[in-house]
Amino acid sequence: MSSSIHNMMQDIGQRARSASRAMARASSEQKNQALLHIAKVVRQKAGEIQKTNQVDVDRAQANGQDAAFVDRLTMTPKTIETMALGLEQIVSLEDPIGKITPLQKQASGIELGQMRVPLGVIGIIYESRPNVTIDAAALCLKSGNAVILRGGSEAIDSNTLLAQIIQEGLAAAGLPKDAVQVVTTTDRAAVGEMITMTQFIDVIVPRGGKSLIARLMAQARVPMIKHLDGICHTYIDADADVAMAVKVCDNAKTQRYAPCNAMETLLVNQSIAEQVLPILCKIYQDKGVELRVDGLTRKTLEASGFKDLVDATEEDWQTEYLAPILSIKTVANMDEAMDHIERFGSKHTDAIITNNKEKADRFLREVDSASVMVNASTRFADGFEYGLGAEIGISNDKLHARGPVGLDGLTSLKYVVMGHGEIRT
């Protein structure tokens, strides 16, 4: 690793740590003022943002990137306006910093509570989408944190311009511009530095593909908030309403294929399979979804005239397709469904469709995932849909945050003690 990259990252880290103290004491008014200023400038400079982004897009196309990659990279007028609206939405959220839980008087006479405080310095490593620069910076800013952003090399021009806009907003509100820094080198060694800078960075949030997450899991020394896979299941119970099951499971798979909360495996109780599978699978095939099925599901569907079915393999049950492909398994009962989820799931989001409250309650208690749902599409596992305003990512870890990570997930709690001269005896 070159000494110049090391020195650059050390300098960024030191400045972020210094800025984090100013951010921790910043008022809600200051933070909101910065966010509103950034939103205003984003709109004012929409043309410049698009022009700069086109440089990144042209480079990606010249390097042979596929259409999906280029689409994620491209900033349209709608994308830019959505960024500005997102900033204004975060302004409307309640500031969590400094809140103290109700004080509880102890036998000694002291009063004890907990105060919500920033994590400190957050490092975010992400790919492709330059709008993450604004979204992530805004959430970190509102939650009183400093942030170091390392976007993908493919979006370096867009990210650098957006960082300048953010720093302009910080300065306008009297906050340190070093509270948001973008790593401007495309050298991957910078990532290696970030994930080991425990003296400067309190937590890393990776937003990218499996190869990035796997690398960080193997090499990082800084704690992470992350998820590797979104292998989401929906189980249609024997006591499900068929019309509801069809509507929800169609949406869970086909509303969008690429997000991590899209359903990848459908589990169907054998006693309802003949009623629900032909209706639902016709919808899937009409929409171009490839069906990978177990033997019982194949038998049910072929009896209804279905063709072009693919035999599901062991690998299919543990694959996040992010594509119009769906694995389907017919199970004997809910216990078999939950055993399948435990074995093959990624602890992201899993749902049950049932009108049986006892079974729903069991599913909620026993399925060990970040989001567990009853009679709802897995596509709801999202910070915006959960009323968090926005999210910095989704975590399927159990510590420190779990599920969609909003403002509260970027904070911690410390104990506060209010005394009246008490001494311990």
Describe the fold and architecture.
Helices cover 44% and strands 18% of the residues. It has 15 helices and 16 strands. It has helices spanning 3-24, 28-44, 46-62, 67-73, 77-92, 131-142, 156-172, 189-194, 210-219, 242-254, 273-286, 295-303, 314-317, 334-344, 357-366, and strands at residues 104-105, 111-118, 121-126, 146-150, 180-182, 203-207, 232-236, 263-269, 290-293, 310-311, 325-331, 349-353, 371-374, 393-395, 403-405, 411-418. Strands 10-9-11-8-7-12-13 form a 7-stranded parallel sheet, with helices on both faces. A 4-stranded parallel sheet has the order 5-4-3-6, with helices on both faces. The termini are far apart. The mean pLDDT is 95.
Work out the helix count: 15
Q: Calculate the terminal CA-CA distance, rounded to whole Å.
A: 56 Å
Helix content: 40-55%
Low-confidence stretches: none
Work out the number of β strands: 16
Short description:
The protein is of the alpha/beta class. The protein is 44% helix and 18% strand.
How is the topology of this model organized?
Blueprint: H1 3-24, H2 28-44, H3 46-62, H4 67-73, H5 77-92, E1 104-105, E2 111-118, E3 121-126, H6 131-142, E4 146-150, H7 156-172, E5 180-182, H8 189-194, E6 203-207, H9 210-219, E7 232-236, H10 242-254, E8 263-269, H11 273-286, E9 290-293, H12 295-303, E10 310-311, H13 314-317, E11 325-331, H14 334-344, E12 349-353, H15 357-366, E13 371-374, E14 393-395, E15 403-405, E16 411-418
Parallel strand pairs: 3-4, 3-6, 4-5, 7-8, 7-12, 8-11, 9-10, 9-11, 12-13
Antiparallel strand pairs: 1-2, 2-16, 14-15
Helix pairs in contact: 2-5, 2-7, 3-4, 3-7, 5-6, 6-7, 10-11
